[in-house]
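Q: For a teaching handout, I want to show students what a protein-ligand complex looks like in token form. Below are the inputs, and the small molecule is zinc ion. Please produce the holo structure.
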Amino acid sequence: MRRTAHPHGPEDRQVPRRKAEFEYGDREIARGCEGADVVELQVRLAGFRGTLPDGDFGPGTERQVMTFQRDYMKLRSPTGIVGRSTMLAIDRFAEAYPIDFAKIRCSCGRCNGFGTGQFKDRYLAGKPRTEAFYRYEYPGVHRLLLWAVRAARFYMGPGGFSITSGYRCSFDNADHGRSTTNHHGKAIDVVFAPRAGGKPRNAGADCDAARGRIVETADAQIGWGARNRKALEPSDIAPTWVHYDVRCYESKYLGDEMFCTTLEQLDNRRAIRFSTPKTGSRVKKTPARR
Ligand SMILES: [Zn+2]
Ligand SMILES: [Zn+2]
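A: Here is the structure, written as tokens, with zinc ion included.
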């Protein structure tokens, strides 16, 4: 589905491509690996630079891993290889930066906290058929976005952090006269308070600083110009908060399975089921295909 080019002759096409069936934790993963476990890794490291959650471990994913190893694990020589120690460090990162789902549930009192799944394939009247105007109530909040929020908390350092707005379903939007559908699971609004010990500053300046840091550390964009990039609302729209969203992603990265409603689903903690070999072929020798 991802790739149509085939390196061999037509006879090879008769052989079905072996489907990667690895789940996160089944094996060490590194450049050249493909599969569901790579998607999971790309989601978990979404705020460390960040790449597409496409299941293909190319240079962009390697950069995510090396950034995490350098910045979070404090490794002097990042390897780009995700073995046991890196997986365990990702677990520690998740534990250190939990997400309070009570704060991101819709407060309308009429849905179950994450919409009612209505308006599949429906767009706002008179608007382009793009995610910005898509009315569908996604079944939770996008996991990649929440993992990216965790990384933003890490990079902002110790200090206050609060989620000011999470899921806002159609009922909630109607109650408040809003026309935007971004908060149907694709956006989170947060506030990063001044760092502990710091002087209280201007909220606008704090938000500008936070946006700058997120652009720098997570490869996010301000505004919605580029496809498949995490996006931040510009300061004229969000003067005293930081709005972070995934509405620029193509619909194939916005499948229902990417959305979660609990911390357990977000963490999706898996046991590690391999041991790292001491010597020999640590890295799969498949050439990078990006
Ligand atoms: Zn609601
Ligand atoms: Zn917002």
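A: Two things your students might notice: Residues 165, 182-183, 187, 189, 243 surround zinc ion (ligand 2) (CB under 6 Å). The radius of gyration is 20 Å.
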